[in-house]
Design brief:
Strand order of the largest sheet: 7-6-5-3-4-8-9
Number of strands: 12
Strand content: 15-25%
Radius of gyration: 17 Å
Structural class: alpha/beta
Length: 231
């Protein structure tokens, strides 16, 4: 069974330095104009820190439901989803009951993690409710190596969306894309997250465009050498 953890491990073995995530932020707001590029090594480091935070602070493990309330096409969403899966827990994209929430909304409540989207942020710019983890301030304190306390089974739920549930046995898709595909991922998180896994599973990389208008998107597809466009 291929899992997100095994896919990430394969990327590290294949080429730890090649870009695996390229992100452009063209959405209105303070992060407009950002371009972020993550190699497999850097991506794995973010995943390790987030995974250790999930285990050490929230006892996340198979059976834990983690609500991801982040922009679908964002580099931070990518590593938080991988972190949840790396500890065997379940990513939920559905509002409602969850064991904890990872969100960019500082008013979302007092149970979980508040993420600051800006790449260079060292703390959240607003006061946060008591008991909430300020990711920008605290995530760097967690370890750079992740050892999962438990491994998921194939029948364990991995991704819950409004369309249903994907289990770990079927989470990593078989896309038929060529080895090394450079994939422009699009759509809601329910589509984007499996597409990211599908690209990485063929030793590929993903391009994430947030709020990018069509003409500029076309230019960036050419500049970034995209070979599969899912928009």
């Amino acid at each position: 069974m291929r899992t997100p953890s095994s896919v990430l491990a394969d990327l590290l073995r294949a080429d730890a330095t090649r870009p695996r995530v390229t992100f452009y932020d063209d959405a209105p707001g303070p992060t407009r104009g950002e371009r972020i590029e993550l190699s497999a090594r850097v991506l794995a480091n973010w995943v390790a820190k987030a995974g250790n935070a999930l285990q050490e602070e929230y006892d996340a493990a198979p059976g834990t439901l983690v609500r991801l309330d982040l922009p679908a096409l964002h580099w931070r969403t990518a590593y938080w989803a991988l972190a949840v899966w790396s500890v065997g827990a379940t990513v939920s994209l559905v509002e409602g009951t969850a064991d904890l929430t990872v969100t960019d909304d500082p008013q979302a409540g007092a149970d979980g993690v508040v993420v600051t989207l800006a790449a260079l942020a060292r703390s959240h710019p607003e006061p946060l409710p008591a008991g909430v983890m300020d990711e920008a301030r605290e995530l760097a304190t967690y370890g750079d190596q992740l050892v999962a306390w438990a491994e998921p089974r194939g029948e364990d739920p991995a991704l819950v969306t409004h369309d249903g549930t994907l289990h770990y046995a079927s989470l990593v898709p078989r896309t038929g894309w060529p080895t090394g595909a450079r994939v422009r991922v699009a759509g809601p998180a329910s589509v984007a997250l499996p597409a990211m896994l599908g690209s990485w599973a063929v030793d590929g990389s993903v391009l994430l465009l947030r709020g990018t208008e069509r003409d500029l998107a076309t230019e960036r597809l050419t500049t970034e050498g995209v070979t599969v466009d899912l928009a």
